[in-house]
Amino acid sequence: MSSARSEILANIRRSLGVNGLESPRKLEVQSRLSQKPRGLIPSRGAGEVEAQLNIFKREAEIVSAHVHILDSLNQAPAEIARLMKSHDLPMALRLGADQRLNGLDWSQAGLALSFGPSKGDDQAAFSHAFAGIAETGTLALLSGPDNPTSLNFLPDVHFVALAQNDLVSDLETVWVRLRKLNGDHHLPRTINLITGPSRSADIEQTLLLGAHGPRHLHILIYRH
Amino acid sequence: MTQHPTSTYFKDNAHRALQNPQLQKALGNSRKGFIERRAQAAARLPEFEALRDSARDIKNHVLAHLDLYLETYEQNVIASGGHVHYARTSEEASQIIIDLCKERGARSVTKGKSMVSEEINLNAALEKAGIKPIETDLGEYIIQLRKETPSHIIAPAIHLNKEQVEADFRKAHQHLSPERDLSQAPQLLQEARAILRQQFLAADVGITGANFLIAETGSSVIVTNEGNGDLTQIFPKTHIVIASIEKLVPTLEDASQLLRVLARSATGQDMSVYTTLSTGPRRSADPDGPQDYHVILLDNGRSSMLGGEFNDMLRCIRCGACMNHCPVYHAVGGHAYGWVYPGPMGSVLTPSLIGIEKSAPLPNASTFCGRCEEACPVRIPLPKLMRHWREREFERHLTPAVARSGLAFWAIFAKRPRLYRLCTSIAMRLMALAAGEKGLFTSLPFAKGWTQQRDLPAPQGRTFQEQWQKVRGNQ
Ligand code: SF4
What pTM did the predictor assign? Predict the structure, then answer.
């Protein structure tokens, strides 16, 4: 072990007046790590399904995302084609390997599909969210082959599908669901919590959309 | 090398700042915005004040157990395939990063915004080693072109006007048509976006800071609005995180509590656009992300602050609210503070990190109005901590002679209350007469530094003690 490491730890312990072996301290740390107390959760995101959907929509729109509510994910190809035309974009769309999206019927959409991570020249991409957080209108996306992280940042327009079932009230519920899915120590490499399209206010405090990431974020919430 | 400080010249720096019309115009753009947006965000969330308590308590808990959380964090970074390096000083941290870059044959590195990288003066060290650092946060990119340091911890180019940015872009991007229109902010943003896009894809190493390090999972968390910190870590083969040791939090739940007060206090957003958790290198099936993940944990004097007078300062989550609410910062901007961290948090932290002898004026750069403490999401008693520095400074005889003799003079009166009352009541009446009808002094002998910028309201002819006697007598 490096001397910097042992010196820093020793200095911390000297300052705190401890030696690192005291069992009450260790117990306190272990219990916090295992019990993971939830702290104070604002009530804003709470509510039954339909109410939560409305809260999510309201919050996402406050931060300039566009929210579209579909009865079924099967409507996504037509909806995306329509939105791409309205943005005057070339009719090409990049997706990952998520079967929920790739398995849709794209034949009528008039879109040229490509698959896999983005190399920086895609104008539009389509991802599937792991969860949506009503409290702040935030999407949670997980890295991996299904939804490569590069799709969240490189395209000008990002479409994200969100199942109504995956709407939760708060961030803490996302962690609970992730642990259930993966066990305690297996987060994906990257978790992106996305709240609206990219922006910057670095020039004279003027807020501008589309700094390095997408200029437009379209969230397609589907009921079934 | 640590950034070379000019904090001892605060007075001259401040004077120059007040005379600089460009800077005063730029500061005028921001004064109200930050305060109003934070107030609105706080008002929209009934639980906001209670969340500040929760945030404070989490940080206190971590600091009291920092050794144990560091060990847990380290284990979990390693378990997820990453590497942890410890650095006692700025020089050690820079050297570790340079070695990692050299081992990988890196010629250019992209950087997300990181105050710790400013603290260790990483860019200068990289350049000296022949590696080209490219700042990718728009504000950081602009000030890198100008060879300046950030003047605000979350809005690094807040001291500039768009005309200055336009001139910088024309000078730096000479391959583009000189005829192009850059008169508006969106055009400037568009140009920076296009240029930096190429850099993201070409860089060998990406360096980001961290807002939080999560012990439970070994994750680092960054919070941005632009997405540059993400592009910085997706494309290069290696992702290096540089963070100071007090960034630890125990669990994902604890990070979530802190996130709720961070963005609201900083920009008045409920959440920043991108909150990203990075855990180790890419997994075997992942089609993108770095193949290599390294975290450098910097001490640089922090471990000595623990448990002492300045322990509370280590709760800081670098939101910038204290400077956004500071009348001194509003008047002089960030550069006058002379080192990396400006405003009230800088006035406390800078002396701890570089020594009070190199920054003696900073704890005095305050009106002690208390707005910084009122705004601080983790309730750091900033005025009290500044006072601690002033006391220490006085003990060590770093206080300027004028202040010392003033205090000695004051002590004569303080020990003789009758003499004090007599003199003050005569003085008050004289001053009220001298100020005339407006009741304001537009200039005062010995106090030009004050009256040049503002009028001093004159006393109304009675001392506080006299009025107090009267009020008490009436009851
Ligand atoms: S001292 Fe408080 S208000 Fe200032 S930057 Fe730190 S956390 Fe924010």
Answer: 0.89
